[in-house]
Records
---
Amino acid sequence: MALRLPNHFRAIFAEGAFNSAFIPAYARVRTQDGDAAAGVFADRIFTLLFLTQLALLALALTFTPEVIRLLAPGFVDDPARFDLAVDLTRITFPYLLLITLVTLYGGMLNALNRFAAAASAPILLNLSLIVALSFAAFFPTAGHAAAWGVLGAGVLEVLLLGGAAMRAGVLAQFRRPRLDAAVRRFFRALGPATLGSAGVQIALFADTIIATFLSAGAISALYYADRLNQLPIGVIGIAAGTVLLPEMARRIAGGDEVGARHAQNRAIELALLLSLPCMVAFLMVPDLIMRALFARGAFTTADASAAGQTLAAYALGLIPFVLIRSMTATFLGRGDTATPVKAALTAVAVNVAFKVLLMGTLAQVGLALATSIGAWVNLLLVTALAWRAGYFALDADLRQSLLRLAVATAALAVGLWLAAPVVSVWIDGSVHFRDELRLLVLGLLGAVVYGSAVALLMGRRWLALLRRPGRS
């Protein structure tokens, strides 16, 4: 809970809404008015962002028990869990202020085609958590160690991104806010973007709230499954969208509509090329993945099975989650944050309705399945709206790639289906680390099958997809 709450608000106020509105606005000001005007614009947004996040932090720290009662009502009747959630949340919540500043600097650097620092920032979170948990014996609980690790990561990420921004000459400073034309246009885009991000988080809040009424392991099963599902979403989908958004914003600002559509089509191809094998693995061998990665200590085989079923349900929505950033980029690059919001809120309504329908029979698996259904609704609506507006069209290369990737994906699925029982028998129960070894063998086999199929069907073109999506 303490990890999810600041992440929910981060997705609303920072990475979700803010990036959607800020990166196109900053790129447009730089393209049309020059570097000096862009610096003034960034300073004013930085000042307003810092002050609003500081106020939110003060409210959150003051009313943490009330927030936990609202968002985790299932904890109210368990004083030990409730008090622990309050304590840990008060440690992790300042991470929101820090990561918001990281998002600002990352957006500025992305608009300058500097992606390395922002892409590296999450590594610091992982390292900080690992180091903190290594010293868990010196904290009241392992949860306290992890919470302090999160807060420490926020400090490290601000230093990393702030240093990169300083070297690039775009480090934002405090400046008296002024609602000039650029700032007003930014806030007109930020409003709908915030509403859309909030709508998506409502669905995730529903997961958290409902899961607190389920068995004790439900939240953990959702968390571990979501962590694995987020790997291709973050590494592939968000990465492609992060590069594509400033690219499309610059091309659209310069009147290059053909180049913008070309960049979008190539980003979609790349995202599908890399994410389809992840989807197949999550659907075909989810239990094995969970056992190999987590089944030790207090994480039992039964826990792995529950998390594996949840992962498979999430995997059904992996493709729309990976593609949605690339699809919405055509609207965001034009400063239109309202249209994607309409699709997102419709998807949220469908998502929450299915959560209520499925939670009774499928528990946390039903929550994950509802999330996948909502993701498909979101993607299909955004695609239809973009198509109708003339912002998106499948070019000949993308149409051919879709057919070829479908064949390669089917070959991978059949290969894993045939190989899994053979590998399981071959690596019998007497072998140490048998699940890890089975997963390694299947992973290598899958890579050979999928890679060979892609190379055979697409030839040298698949190598070209690894180039930056914006390049012609």
---
Amino acid sequence: MKVLCLLATGLVAWMLVEGGGSSTCPAVSAQTPEMDQAQSYLRQGKSRLDDKDPAGAARDFRAALKLNPHSAEAHVDLGVALEENGDQVGAVTELHRALQLEPQRPAAHYNLALILIRAGNFEGARTELLSALEAKPDYVDAHYQLGLLLGNWAEKTDLAAAQREFQEALKSRPNFPAAHEGLGVTLAVLGNTEQALEEIRIALRLKPDYPEAYYHLGVILKRAGRSEDASQAFAAAIKLQPNYAEAHFELGLVLIDQRKLDAAIQELRKAVELKADSERAHYSLGRALSLKGEVAAANLEFKQAQDLRQRAGDAVEARHLSNSAVEQLQKRDLDGAEANLRKALVLEPDYAIAHYNLGLVLATKGEFHAAVAEFRQALKGQPINPKVHLDLARALELAGSLEEAITEYEAALDLQPGNSVIKGALSEALAKQEAARRVHPVSVNPPPQP
């Protein structure tokens, strides 16, 4: 006979009891005081998160985990708190720990996806959102975020799929303003203007103080040739959010078309003030000033737009040089690869991928200390990329910094648990560390004799 027994041990687990005799289940243990205290810390941490105190919340979640280290919920909450406090590496580490405990925990996959989206890892984010939905098919926020991702992902935009995700979100939560807005924007791009306008208006009925919905309403109306209605929508967005740069810019364009040049100049100056690196805003301001006859002021704006266009061109050229360097590295043309990467970094000094590729070139040339410096620069732009941590660790180890290398191996493994390459490298580094300790044991000086 087989009897399923539920055990209350802090974690919910099932036990299969076999045998032909007694069918009595083991006694169920009561919730311990430690578990009660852990739950209290959890509740307090969630309250601090709601009050926008992520640092305080993180302390509470750590206290909960000290009492109950197997709480996937606490690891997820700690990950959220750390991410809000600017610690992406720590956040990803905690979310992976939650998934090690509960591989199908939807909130862990979902929050990991949000971090990956912000880091620009859209393929990874899509995978995590799909995992969240596999575990919880009616996960409204995951459907919504997947819709946003599919509608805005330049390399793999799929508007039809985005539409389906927003509609799935609305099946479970019909009064979800952001999903109505997302669906409206998607429908507009697909060419269904009237249905798009209806979705945006539903969003505004549900949430009247929604500046983004007013902005997108204005964009759709402008494209439909309804400039007066569009200007009112942009003005409503600005009233709700005075520093809404895109709304000022779009309103400025509408006002130019209406030949209301003074008002257009005012809006476009505000757009430039709020977003000084917008080539389009500077150019449009120059156009409005030129139409008004203010040639000198217009030329200054045109010059600024030209400079910004040149910087954008520099960024494109930097990417081209970096890609060329990768091909040269594969062909073992190390000097050529290094030259191209250094040119790329002159054009775009904070280009993380170029720093990473230069680190690879220098490590291949045996210049390990220089490679370490480049990998560290790359980490500034890609702090949650396990490959950068791994190659930094390798360079540190080859440069003779075994302790630092182990730290980076551990960081890489935290960011990508289960990776056999990282596990093997870390294991070898730890073995070297242990061997060194046996050869050179730490000596303890005896106390001085009186």
---
Amino acid sequence: MTTSNAANPYKRKETFVYEFGGPIGALLTIIALPPFILALTYFASIGQISLDPADIYASSYSHHLPTFLKCFMGLLAWFLFQVILERFLPCELVQGAEIPNGRRLTYRINGHLAFWITILIVLCSFPVMEDGRIQFTAAPLHLLYDYYGDLALAAIAWCSILSVYLYIKSFSSDILAKGGDSGVAIYDFYMGRELNPRLGSFDWKEFCELRPGLIGWAVLNMAFVVVQKEKLGYVSGSMILVNVFQGLYVWDALYQERAILTTMDITTDGFGFMLVFGDMAWVPFTYSLQARYLVDYDPNLGIYALMGIVLTNCIGYSIFRGANSQKDAFRRNPDGEDVKHLQFLQTKRGTKLLTSGYWGMARKINYTGDWIMGLSWCMLCGLQSVVPYFYAIYFCVLLIHRSARDDHMCQIKYGKDWEEYKKTVPYKFIPGII
């Protein structure tokens, strides 16, 4: 008598393929990431790396419970504000990829409108009573600078609470992510058990992927502009460009919101601590390091240096957006006017793999463009400190690892067709080199 994997958890565990170092790696990551983010907020404030734990503890946040609670409540208010925009703004209803039970979930696509509504509100003046008269004052963005570390700590706390809720909730769902159903609690908590956790029609994963953290990153950058102006009396070229570059990046993600529905984060990964923490703590508080650094340590780059960095960013963006747009257009309609000329490999699964255009140059050419953009953000901070270059270093490691995950999944999915595809498109990142 044989027993299936579903009925025999011991057999399933033996054949389960772990990622990120397995349960031990997941546990260490969960423990290490919160203090690491707090350390980075401190490094950005002093402009260099300090490994003295006492200094980090003393400087990265206030340690006052009332201050933390205010920041936590403010963060929750921000999250709920974005939920309200997602729920009540006009939207396009779009179906996502097919999930394991054969259904397609419907998503409310209005992130681009939510982005602009948020920015307009942030830029507005608000009435306040002063000396018996109503005065209009701008949003107190400087508070985001003053309590940068406290807000990071509040984000860490909120991500931890939400991750616990999602893990508990996953036991009432029958649509689990394959990579988060190992049977080992700490690993599944990290990876995420449930594939598409929802509260009614509200999709936790798709919402958190783009709204609170990503738009929050743009607002933090705007706050640093305000504070630099207050401190220096002007806004530097580097600060202007880092806001333009990163603001464009955020805007682009939200403008192309429907494209995220076919990414690995949505179609494959569960929604657990890894993505929750990445979306709402890691993104806003590590991706904003350049702007935070520039408030106090602007390198005063000359016009030619700034022009060279602008060119670098434009090259990266054109590769990134061109590749992703081409792939998305081909997936939606292979016979469309803009993509019908492209060559492809027809797989036995019925899927077509592009072998020309951007995707004929390298299998992960979009990652290359993405990294070049990130490098240009770091270059705006000069060469005095490695701290603002953390993004480029981390992102390089992330993209290499992510490409390996993609390759492994595609090998399983396409089999011999994937081997044939790699022969046709032999380079992964840079045509003719890597």
